[in-house]
Every structure is written in structure tokens, then in C-alpha cells.
Prior knowledge:
three-stranded antiparallel beta sheet; 3 strands
Amino acid sequence: MGVITPDKIQMKARKKIPQHIIDAVNEMITAEWDGRHAIFTQDDLMELVLKKSAKPTKQEIYDGKLFDFEYVFRREGWVVVYDKPNYNEDYNANFTFSKDELDKATLIAMMLKAEEDCGQDYEKLHGTQDNLLLRYIGSEEVKEIYGRTPKHCS
């Protein structure tokens, strides 16, 4: 079997997150999207999840870490930030979803997903990976490094 990779352990964790929680997050993103990002509180998400389904309960959601869904959305290209107050702060924990930034962890997750999605179609894979790298590095820097414009990469 070999050593388990961080990506495989994350995918195992993903399989335990019920689809109705993923659907509720999608609904919150859609409702709060302002063109750049969506911000919503953990309490608002909990309220929506519990309104849509009696199972799992609030305690089961916390005990089962069913709100640890960030990785799933990062693999789809979202930048996800979870912010909770420190002991001396007073505000509601919240999630921020954005598409503008592409950090290294998100880039790696998206590159791995591209490998899964493209399979043996290496031309499609390389085009997809080139486009992801363009988002990560920035087109001006890529032009300088490669001497080509972004449209030549797709």
C-alpha cells in the first residue's frame, strides 16, 4: 500500500462530509457572492444546514468535523479562509471564499485535480496546468520568463 499522502488523507476526509453540507456551502457562496468574494458566518451556515436537514445534529457536525470542507473547495479553485476569534476577541467565526488569489496550496490541489480530470490526455493536461500557472504567477511575469503571451498557453 505504501505511505499515505496528504492529498489521499484529505480525500478520505472529504468522503465523510455529507452532500447536503456541500450544497449548503454552495448556497451560501451564491447568496453572498459580490463579484470578488463571499463571506458568511459559521453560525449562518449552521442555521442553513439544520433548516434543510435534521441529521446530522449540531453536535454531530462539530464532533465529526463536518465543517472542515475547505480542502474540497480549494481543489475546485476556491481560495478559502476560515477565521475564528482568539480568546480575547469577540466576533463570529466566518468563511471567506474568493477566486482572485491563488496561493501555493490551492495551486497544488488544482494541479492534482487536473491530473485526475485529464487522465491520459496530456495536451489538455498541459494546457490546464499552464493556465493555472498563469493565474499563480501572473501573466506579465510569465511573458518575461517565457517570452510569450498567456493566450499561447491554452
